[in-house]
Amino acid sequence: MGIYYGLYTITRGFSYVIASMSLPLTMLFLIGIISRGYLLKFAVIGGFISLISTNALSSAGDASFLRLELKFQDLLVTTRITRIDYMLGLMLSYLFFSLPGIAVYAAIGVILNLFTAFRAFALFLIMLSLLISETSLAFIIAGIMKHIRNVWGIVSILSIIFSVIPPIFYPYTYLPKYALYALSISPATPGAVVAQGIFGMQPLNYVMLILLIAETGFYFVLGMNFIKWRES
Amino acid sequence: MIEIYELNKIYNNGVEALKKITTKISKKRTAIIGRNGAGKTTLIRILSTQLMPTSGYALINGLNILNEEQKIRRKVSCIPQEARPVGLLTPYEHILIYLTARGYSFKNASEEARKALKAVNLWENRNTTADELSGGMKRKLFVAMALASNAELVFLDEPTTGLDPLSRLEVWTAIKELGSDLVLTTHYMEEAQSLSEEIVFMENGSIIKQGTFEEVLSEFKGKVRVESRKPVEGWKKVGGLYIKYVDSGEAHEYVKMGYDIKQITLEDLFFKYGVEIES
Q1: Residue B109: which of B82, B145, B133, B65 has the closest Cα?
Q2: Which residues in A lie closer than 8 A to residue B70 (C-beta atoms)?
Q3: 145-164 in B: which are within 8 Å (CB) of A?
Q4: CB–CB contact A72 B83 (8 Å)
Q5: Can you tell me the distance from the alpha carbon of A169 to that of A44, in angstroms, rounded to the nearest whole number?
Q6: Nearest-CA neighbor of B78 among B165, B180, B3?
Q7: Which of A81, A102, A133, B274 could form a disulfide with A187 if both were Cys (CB 3.0 to 4.6 A apart)?
Q8: Could you give the ipTM of this predicted complex?
Q9: CA B33 to CA B98: how far, in whole Å?
């Protein structure tokens, strides 16, 4: 399912891929111009985080559409797959869907000489944990909503709160501590903070590393319970 | 074999969709008929383990829906009401996804997909994205998925709702290809008659009648339905018509008076019980 739903969405609906890259690329451009290149690294690393976060959160729309409109989730309930398989399948499809965007940022990162093998691997792990936690958040939203129309609105609002306001495109030290911890409700915040630390742009914050791991597990378990696999 | 014991479903909004149903469904092909809101879909969703009952239980070929759902899901296939395909995927890909989810290897899934798509005359459209398929083709795709599943028991929830007569006939032909036991819901009487050996008539969360076509209509034996478009005192109002059941021997009297005479069909169950309960 991940392969078909993710890969074929790229080839048969490429405009969605472009749309998913538009926000981080716009931010990259603006931040590059306004900071005269000073914060360009933040914008590139933030682009990875934003791309995965936005795509993963947008899956609330797809998850709702598959459940409420197409009844595709119901169709799959009566098979061998479990709710975890279904969640992982959709997550995989969003990983595939994000690949063109990741390739663009990877190319920019290579040009700016940002990567070492360790940093690239660490960034991959951060993106993976964000994919799991934010897709799980999407399943929570999809499980609560009864009408698909409401989902698009909620996702638009949450995309800004979860993917733009957190310190994704700027140094996390610009934020007062209380604001940083308040924004940590979005997994993108600890994800971005840890990434900035690993890339040597800011001090590594171990509390945020623990928070990132904890939120990944927490949201995944919550997502499993909200997915409405076998409704009661 | 489906055995249902005191099955009850009360939704969060307080609606009691099933009222302690107890019955057995043992025929190879069974149609559950009833008006919208009669409880057909709730019953199918519970039996196919998509929905938990409030109380009671059911056995699907001896397996309890309450705690053996994983085993049941290997044996049954359920096509939900108003299921629609994913627009960007092709019929072939839909069946591959469905069959791999059912545990088929990619190779076996490909082979079964090919057979099923040929059986429902969709092979030529196998690589057309679902967005470009007609309504009838989309429904046939879901029947092909059920067909390809080779499940012991297939549930089809209103498989032809909203289709034109020709598309409906095509879907019926596809359904007749199914080798599995079949439980379908419908409010098309001719569909129930054409596709099933047993009829379960539901109204307001209860089973009102169950049996073969002849058995469920036994109370109408030797009778015909007299219809009038104008109000007649003492006759039952059904939509824009006024009806009365009389012995067929008396029919000619009503013909002389200018009334229409109709043979008894499954619709008469709706006229008798559905409308009676509502009025």
Answers
A1: B145
A2: 80
A3: 145, 155
A4: yes
A5: 8
A6: B180
A7: A133
A8: 0.85
A9: 28
